[in-house]
From TrEMBL:
Highest taxon in the source lineage: Eukaryota
Role played: Methylates the carboxyl group of the C-terminal leucine residue of protein phosphatase 2A catalytic subunits to form alpha-leucine ester residues.
Protein name: [phosphatase 2A protein]-leucine-carboxy methyltransferase
EC number: 2.1.1.233
SUPFAM superfamilies per record: S-adenosyl-L-methionine-dependent methyltransferases
The keyword Transferase is annotated on this UniProt entry: yes
Catalytic activity: [phosphatase 2A protein]-C-terminal L-leucine + S-adenosyl-L-methionine = [phosphatase 2A protein]-C-terminal L-leucine methyl ester + S-adenosyl-L-homocysteine
EC main group: transferase
InterPro entries per record: LCMT1, Ppm1/Ppm2/Tcmp, SAM-dependent_MTases_sf
Annotated family: Belongs to the methyltransferase superfamily. LCMT family.
Organism field: Molorchus minor
């Protein structure tokens, strides 16, 4: 499978999530900034996404409760995920939050964030500046960066730009991502993580 169909899964997943939110499966005040139009989905799909979202959120909450404010979250294949804003609304304190996806996906997300005063205010409600390029955005402890997970040298460089501290407890989130990556590449990614990060937990969601 080429990269284009993989990138398109972000649109489908985001539309499914907004559709489920509109029907009241869970609350998300930010998904509408990234997804404007949705088609009605079958109840089984809505329930599946509810389990997917709540399951991952449960692991995240447990990790933050354990790691405290020094926690870092790195979201592989983040797409149009809104978790950062939801954590901010809940008053959750973490040291760093990094979203990673293909540059063409992060370019869209950066554009949508830039044109939304509300989204910008929520990531910039502290001292500091917003650094924005066509594919990357850095503001306080929020970073959205375009990188190919299969290119570990590029990934490491981008994480340094995002001020990732390799000694802090770090939660890696991969929501329906690694299933699209060759097994050999997945093994390299996991090996790299284990060698670079002092303390880490990996949450890998597979839709099977």
């Amino acid at each position: 499978m080429g990269d284009e169909p993989v990138m398109a899964t972000n649109d489908d997943a985001s539309e499914c999530k907004r559709g489920a939110v509109q029907l009241g499966y869970w609350s998300d005040d930010y998904i509408s900034y990234f997804v404007k139009h949705v088609e009605r989905r079958a109840p089984e799909i809505n329930r599946g996404y509810y389990a997917r979202v709540k399951g991952i959120e449960n692991f995240i909450q447990k990790f933050i409760n354990k790691a405290g404010s020094s926690a870092q979250l790195i979201n592989f294949g983040s797409g149009f995920d809104t978790l950062y804003w939801k954590l901010k609304d809940e008053g959750v304190q973490i040291s760093n939050y990094v979203e990673i996806d293909f540059p063409s996906v992060t370019a869209k997300k950066c554009y949508l964030i830039k044109r939304s005063k509300h989204l910008l205010q929520r990531i910039h409600d502290q001292d500091g500046e917003v650094k924005l390029s066509s594919t990357d955005l850095h503001a306080g402890n929020y970073h959205c960066i375009g990188a190919d997970l299969r290119n570990l040298s590029q990934l490491e460089e981008k994480l340094h730009q995002a001020e990732v501290n390799f000694n802090r407890p770090t939660l890696f989130i991969a929501e329906c991502v690694l299933v699209y990556v060759e097994n050999e590449c997945v093994n390299r990614i996991l090996s790299w993580i284990s060698s670079k990060f002092k303390s880490g937990l990996f949450v890998n969601y597979l839709n099977v």
